[in-house]
Amino acid sequence: MQQNTKSSPRVWLYARLPGDELGTLNQLNFLRLRANLQNCTIVGTSIDTHRGWLHRSGYREMMRHVKSGDVDQVHICRLGTISHSSSFLYRFFRSLSLHHVIACAAEVSLASCAGYYRFAHKAEQYALRNGLSLPW
User: 98: phi > 0 → left, psi -120 to 50 → alpha, else beta; which?
Assistant: First the structure.
């Protein structure tokens, strides 16, 4: 029997439900339980409960850690946690791809639903042009 020498992935948990602080905390607790069941190492968590870019300090904190190489995966509940804007989602996934970070959504398989979104084709083309892996 071989010993598993690969360490558990370093995970950042991000939860966001604008206007619903209790729902956001419940979402974060769900992500925490799921990451623990998958034997992930949680290196950080952040939440945002407000709408608009200026009020999303939790998102900016998460992206600082992604860019500094502290994170292997970002766990979210659904794509809408990040944004409903295709251009914003494209920039998010492009940044993850650049830093070799994988996004994992708890409620849906990102790989299977990526084709339904306009940003996905652009993100796939970007990764292909730059020799990067897909961030889902």
Answer: alpha
